[in-house]
Amino acid sequence: MMNNFSVRLLCLSLFMAIFSFGYSQKKITTEDGKKIIILPDGSWKYDESKEEVSTESNNELVRLVSDENFKVNPYQLPDENNSNISEINLDKIAKLEYDIRDLLNEFNVENEISKDNLKLLKEELKISEDSDEVVESADIQTEINITKERLSTLKDNIKILEKNQDRIDKAKKSNDDEASKIVSEVNKTMRKRFDKGFKEDDVKIVDISYYHFELSEKIDHDIHDCEILFDGMDERQKKYRKETAAKPFFSYTHPKLKSFFKSKDFLNCNANLLKLGAYYYLGLEITISSKDAKKNYGAIERNSMLRINFIDGSDIHLTCIKENRGTIEPYTGNTVYKVKYLLDKEQLKTMSKIEIDKIGLIWTTGFEEYDIYEVDFFMNQISCLNSKNK
Fold first, then answer.
1. For the whole model, what pTM was predicted?
2. Do residues 286 and 266 touch, judged by C-beta distance below 8 A?
3. Do residues 359 and 369 lie in contact, with contact meaning Cβ atoms separated by under 8 Å?
4. Mind listing the pLDDT tens digit for each residue in 110-160?
5. Strand ranges in 213-252 using DSSP code E only, listed in sequence order
6. For residue 45, which phi and psi values (nearest 5 degrees)?
7. Residue 70 and residue 35: Cα distance in Å, rounded?
8. Burial zone of 233 (CB within 10 Å; 0-12 exposed, 13-18 middle, 19+ buried)
9. Integer distance in angstroms from the first to the last C-alpha of the chain?
10. Is the dihedral of CA 289, 293, 296, 300 positive or negative?
């Protein structure tokens, strides 16, 4: 026969099972306003579920905006970067902003999970104390103390990160000397406390703004063919440069536009890779079949995020190195956006080993996610870039 303590533990187990079921997806809003979904395994993702569809009166364009409260004047150009700040400091600011935002989201999610765990531990302690299980109660109390300490650390970390985010915001509005001083102090804190930020020797400016990431006039060949656009010494940078030819990456047509775009998609994206010296870059060329695309999509800003989701559930985030507001082709009326994203070696390694599932792109008017059907696209591009044959 089960004793009183066993019965109580069984009840607690059932309670935890029910709690876990109800906890299958928990939505929270972080301090900086980000909406996040916490999954049962403790992992998280951005909440993009609140979508609303708006159509142009001429049915030329359909937009999906992730935040229903997000309002943007489509005729207002995005703010330019502070011209008083040097390029090297802008790159440092971008790196620090990315690390701060990433850590804030991570700590806020862990904070919510730890709070829930603490509630469960207190319930378990109460059951244990009522049953006079002294050793069991001591073990649970130890776990409670550890959890409380972690919550205290998380609170301190979040406070420090928010303070440093404010300082970075101030740096972006300062002159170059003041920005340099703030960046140095924030980076010192980030490296010492979080092992993030940058080493001074790692931050170098590589100007690739003049590269055009050429596209073939018509791509009828197999997407898996390896084509090298350039392989040799770059005369301007005096560095070795190797660049793959662009290939179709993804395309999209909203269901309400299917009847207007029967032979092609409304949005098409080609992509390629570039290696310049020790640096790697991903280039995207997005073509939208509308002359009014800039009113609806806006621009892709410098330092905006490109999220790549993989089939194993992991993801990486790339940062745009140069703003692009789109240009209208004179004969087709299409709007074309050409953007480039910096890749580090760890990201490149991940992209070479795991198939892609989706990508998420931030426009000035909102966030959009696109399904990828060429799941081995990056594997093929990286293999091509690393090939010895020209």
1. 0.47
2. no
3. yes
4. 888 888 888 888 888 888 777 766 657 778 888 888 989 999 999 999 999
5. 228-234, 239-244, 247-252
6. -150, 160
7. 13
8. exposed
9. 77
10. positive
